[in-house]
């Protein structure tokens, strides 16, 4: 038996919006710890990891570990039927082949339930090693989204260079090139801050298409955290308050002259 | 310049596709199971141990787990069905049939 009740139902809707563009089918892992997902996009270049901790739910019960395979666009179709103020409850039997989403309106005068068929999904679970990253950048998530969007109108890839003064996003395309630098900024308002923690300067290049998909998680968190180390995938993390996180991993582009320069 | 795969950085292992045994209806819901026989056994033993520790099914010492399960069933205490299943599947092995304290006391 799996049961999870989330008073702030819009959160689940936002979570799904943040992953459904990247992944079509995915296995959700339900355990005592919480509701989790790890999935790669179809090209196996990026990875998304989601965790909603059990203590973040108003009610959570999971008698035994369960894997629920769902088609995310179908799941999203159902969750779109929930109002933003609705309370969402997910339910599944240990032996059943469906998951039930129940939506209660805040004044309890409307209750809807939607049953989604589960599916068998072959998936690969990747072990992500704990790494000390050379550079960590925290910045407003809306700013990051804006930068990715702006740069993708110029070029296909972005080179992110982190130094102690700031973080530079640059791209080159047919029409020209663009550079955006964000300086370290410790303003009073925490959500406006740009903070750089640096062991050593890092420069990596990524496909903007994926970063743009990652920014679908912007409504989940006011700040985004980028973690980078030379030749390792970047970690783009959005913390969901009191609940968990959505993390994206993106492998860097292999650029022969770039790596020669760096070496 | 090419895109490197994320799998060249993080090592993968298959998961999720394993269907639970038995009931055909359960096909779509795959249990998280490990390929390793030993961890499977450890999981079963842990379920049985939890059963032993559940005081509501009555004293555990001096009778087999199956006897205790049947007594609980007779008294309508609703003992877990998976315990019964594990016990019937492993009715030869002392590790499974006897409660955890049997050899310590």
- CATH architecture call of the largest domain in chain A: Box
Q: Give the chain pair forming the largest contact, with residue counts.
A: A-B, 46 and 28 residues
Q: Kindly report how far apart the N and C termini of chain A lie.
A: 54 Å
**H/I helix tally of chain A:** 5
Poorly predicted sequence stretches spanning 5 or more consecutive residues of chain A: 258-263
Radius of gyration of chain B: 19 Å
- Count the strands of chain B? 3
Distance, first to last CA of chain B: 69 Å
Average pLDDT of chain B: 75
SSE run of chain B: EEEHHHH
Beta fraction of chain B:
5-15%
Q: Low-confidence stretches of chain B at least 5 residues in length (pLDDT < 50)?
A: 16-35
Number of domain modules of chain A: 2
Name a few traits of the molecule:
heterodimer; A: 263 residues; alpha+beta; Proliferating Cell Nuclear Antigen; 2 domains; disordered C terminus; B: 105 residues; 4 helices; 10% strand
Give a quick rundown of the structure.
Chain B: It comes from Micromonas commoda (strain RCC299 / NOUM17 / CCMP2709) (Picoplanktonic green alga). The complex is a heterodimer of chains A (263) and B (105). Chain A is of the alpha+beta class.
Account of the protein in words:
The complex is a heterodimer of chains A (263) and B (105). With 263 residues, chain A is of the alpha+beta class. Chain A has five helices and 20 strands. In chain A, a hairpin with a 5-residue loop joins strand 7 (87-92) and strand 8 (98-104). In chain A, helix 3 runs antiparallel to helix 4 (208-214). Chain A is elongated. Chain B has 105 residues and is an alpha+beta fold. Chain B has a domain at 36-105. The longest helix of chain B is centred in the middle third of the chain and has 17 residues, at 37-53. The radius of gyration of chain B is 19 Å and the shape is elongated. Chain B starts with a strand and ends in an 8-residue tail after the last helix. Mean pLDDT of chain B is 75; it is low at 16-35. The chains are: A alpha+beta (263), B alpha+beta (105). Chains A and B meet through strand 6, strand 10 and strand 20 of A and strand 1, strand 2 and strand 3 of B. Strand 6 of chain A pairs antiparallel with strand 3 of chain B, so a sheet runs across the interface. Chain B: InterPro entries: DNA_pol_delta_4. Chain B: Pfam families: DNA_pol_delta_4 (PF04081). Chain B: One of its GO terms (biological process) is DNA-templated DNA replication. Chain B: GO terms for molecular function: DNA-directed DNA polymerase activity.
